[in-house]
Amino acid sequence: MGVMGRGRAVVPGDPAPNFTAPSTEGEVEFHRWKERRGAKVICVSADPVAAQARRRAELESLAGVGVDFPLIGDSAGAVAAKYGLAEMGSPAPRTVLVVDPEHRVRLAIAYPDSVGAAFGEILRLLDALRLADRFHVHTPAEWRPGERVIVGPELDDATAVECFGRFDAGPGGLRMTDAPRA
To answer: What is the pTM of this model?
Structure first.
């Protein structure tokens, strides 16, 4: 996929550009920061860090929502430009990215300012990605942890039986099995 250029947003499969930026928890070097954790939330905003800190206090005080992750100030737009999320001078959409340990973007969802991000859905997607990576399965729409999954097409029937014990095959060749235990 190569290095991201201005004007093209990162998409699943792209390398996740590294950056260093100020945050409410001090300077953050993204690749190093994320390697110290399993799955963590980080927020990048066009607002300066001081405005982010005020917003954090407001959310915690008025809405009762805890914010226990770094809020990065990107008022110059350097991080947004690296990720192709906005041209300089124009507002960046609120975008959720899931980046894997190999620094690859696995998921990108853009939200308009008027719609809140569904954090439960983001966690569901993270669980689905982890399950797919470990067990060669796919998750159907509306899947929840513990529900049945689709046997990945890269596994032949014999390998699927070896991996999952059994599966149910539909007339179109779709193979469903119980979710593997993590």
So the answer is: 0.73
